[in-house]
From TrEMBL:
Transmembrane segments: none annotated. Residues 2-220 form the Nucleoside phosphorylase domain. The keyword RNA-binding does not apply. GO terms for cellular component: cytosol. It is an enzyme of class 3 (hydrolase). Keywords: Amino-acid biosynthesis, Glycosidase, Hydrolase, Methionine biosynthesis. It comes from the Bacteria. It comes from Massilia eburnea. This is adenosylhomocysteine nucleosidase.
């Protein structure tokens, strides 16, 4: 197994890079890939940058150039459900591109020629990731499993969120990369899992909440959860 770990934000990756044994860095396509061992697991960590295209090219490069066999994404997201609170974690069951619409040629959200609007995750890997998350959070916050929506939009407007929720009632969280990684992994046949810590409520306060959260909590979460996850693999 060779694990690709994608983070969207530098704050989330920093701790992992420090924990890596015999790391070596390689620059490719404006990304810095760091390969080494994380808690005995052969790993490659990289920052995707923000948005679906950035995430897609990063995931594809991890597979094609760095030979990873599995991919995990850690990041933050806005809540899209009243039951999902800031500080909770959502581990995806499936992911949809909420800004994808080729109707009337294809149903809204369906990715042409895949027949899918919701890309399913790898069940075993996602189960391990949610167990690792539960172990890390103890009783401080909740772990949710369900639909994550991705789009090239930072959602910061209640009306916008409500219209997405109307179209995708099961939606638990919104972010900007997960569904792109999901599509790449689906097409390349690579098992993957995606976890998002809720940083904001995707409303008018989202930008301020997001900034504070990332600086104070997100890094600690990503580190603790990936540590538990890697240990559970050996
Ligand atoms: N100003 C920030 C931009 C971050 S964009 C910066 O300079 O880094 C927000 C990131 O967090 C994206 O990677 C996205 O996946 C996630 N995210 C958190 N809250 C979100 C929300 N409300 N809507 C969309 N993405 C969100």
């Amino acid at each position: 197994m060779r694990l690709g770990i994608i983070s969207a934000l530098a704050e989330e990756q920093q701790g992992l890079l420090e924990a890596m044994e015999s790391p070596y860095k390689l620059i490719h396509g404006k990304r810095e890939y760091t390969a080494g061992k994380l808690w005995k697991i052969d790993s490659v960590a990289v920052l995707s940058r923000i948005g679906k295209v950035a995430a897609a090219v990063t995931a594809a490069t991890l597979v094609e150039k760095f030979d990873v066999t599995h991919i995990i994404f850690t990041g933050v997201a806005g809540s899209a459900d009243l039951g999902v609170r800031v500080g909770d974690v959502v581990v995806a069951d499936s992911l949809a591109q909420h800004d994808f619409d080729a109707s009337p040629l294809f149903p809204r959200f369906e990715i042409p020629l895949t027949g899918l609007s919701h890309m399913p995750v790898d069940r075993e890997l996602s189960l391990k990731l949610s167990l690792a998350t539960r172990e890390f959070l103890q009783n401080d916050a909740q772990v949710h499993r369900g639909l994550i929506g991705s789009g090239d939009q930072f959602i910061k407007d209640k009306a916008h969120l409500m219209s997405l929720k109307e179209a995708l009632p099961d939606l638990l969280a919104v972010e900007m990369e997960g569904a792109a990684v999901a599509q790449v992994c689906h097409e390349l046949g690579v098992p993957f899992a995606i976890m998002r810590t809720i940083s904001d409520n995707a409303n008018e306060e989202a930008a301020t909440d997001f900034m504070q959260f990332v600086q104070t909590v997100a890094s600690r979460y990503a580190f603790g959860i990936i540590q538990n996850f890697c240990k559970s693999l050996t």
